[in-house]
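>> received
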Amino acid sequence: MNDALPQPADLAGTVDERQRLLASLPAESLSARWLRRQLDNALSAWAATETAFDISEDARVDY
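>> returned
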């Protein structure tokens, strides 16, 4: 991996779209920094979705 190479734009879209885009990129051209940013973005999106699910579930609980 080479941090000096131009990196593709950050992945976006659904999980399936991101997987397709990632699979289409040549692995040897992706830097560790770019890959880490993609992981951070995916984990942040997942956490936000989980929070939204938790809030929605809590709204249905009778106290």
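>> Residues 32-59 form the longest helix (28 residues).
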